[in-house]
Amino acid sequence: MTTPAIQSRLPEVGTTIFTVMSALAAQHKAVNLGQGFPDFACDPALVNHVTQAMQAGHNQYPPMPGVPLLREAVAAKIEVLHDRKYSVADEITITAGATQAIITAILAVVHPGDEVIVLEPCYDSYVPNIVLAGGTPVRVPLTPGTFRPDFGKIAAAITPKTRAILINSPHNPSGTVWSAQDMLALQELLAPTNILLISDEVYEHMVFDGAQHESVARYPGLAERAFIVSSFGKTYHVTGWKVGTVAAPAPLTAEFRKVHQFNVFTVNTPMQYGLAAYMANPAPYLDLPAFYQRKRDLFRAGLAKTKFKILPSQGTYFQCVDISEISELGEADFCQWLTREIGVAAIPLSAFYGNGFDQRVVRFCFAKKDETLLAALERLAKL
């Protein structure tokens, strides 16, 4: 019997660079600073809350939009931090992580033939999500070197077919954080249009040097047209739990939930109750900038002893470096060489561009134990 041939919906998608580099790191026993997740445990109190929820019998389907206690906690947090009130019933939805939230938002509003602007370099799920919805991705580059938005180029990319724009701040992979001026410029640009906004804010609590996260929720002209995506996995060091949130005005949420109920229906019940109980204490997310800034500074201090040119890291748990003074190799080949010969895995920034744009920059993840970072720095000191 022969399996019938099928025409791929995503013919250009292959094995991701993250999978390739992690496999190479394991093969060569390298310190893996490639994929963006912690190698340390979450707070035991959070695990205890989830265990208690299981023992209390919270093991069946929750309401489709999410457990009310958790939605209430999310809405309260947004109101305190960003001074915008979202309806618990109609404007907050619990999702199976941020990636599911983003594809659900895209499937809810993008029709075949619609255009969606993405700002490159960008997270690798954005473009395939748009393609699966029948939309056309319109790639607009962030300014090379600084990775700041170029509003002239964004404005030039807008056409009558533009349905949405997808932004990400703090930004993966560059670590750039959008300023209040950036948000006001975007608000002014979109004001005369009907363009929707999908704002990926999963690194919202990783903004450094006393700066503030400029959430879309803070800007009425943006919030009224936006899906705001957040991630408990990033905030609480539990990426494998895959629980996120979407905040959006009621008309957008209604369309979002139509798709959500048929692509996941509901999200893990005891995790939701556990997270709701844990959120009663704001300290874990309020203290997170200082927690990661210390790791950033430790890592940057070690990198300063190498020939890497250290680029700014204003937020996230990523540090980008310029490799020009170390090697003549392109980014992808350099990362493979670094893993095999030096024993440290990184990710080439070219992997985040549709055309593989190579600017001799690679990304490290510093969401690691201090001993992991120090072990990596000991090896990188050879450079």
**Oligomer category:** single chain
Please give the CATH architecture of the largest domain.
3-Layer(aba) Sandwich
How many E strands?
A: 13
Average pLDDT over all residues? 97
Instruction: Give the strand content.
Output: 5-15%
Distance between the termini: 55 Å
Let me know the largest β-sheet. Answer: 7 strands, mixed
CATH superfamily of the largest domain: Type I PLP-dependent aspartate aminotransferase-like (Major domain)
Count of all domains = 2
Q: How many separate helices?
A: 15
In the predicted model, the low-confidence regions spanning at least 5 consecutive residues are: none
Name the helicity range. 25-40%
CATH topology of the largest domain: Aspartate Aminotransferase, domain 2
Q: What gross morphology would you assign?
A: globular
For the largest sheet, list the strands in their spatial order.
Answer: 2-8-7-6-5-3-4
Integer-rounded radius of gyration: 21 Å
Series of secondary-structure elements, N-terminal to C-terminal: HEHHEHEHEHEHEHEHEHHHHEEHEEEH
Query: What is the CATH class name of the largest domain?
Result: Alpha Beta
SS-based class: alpha/beta
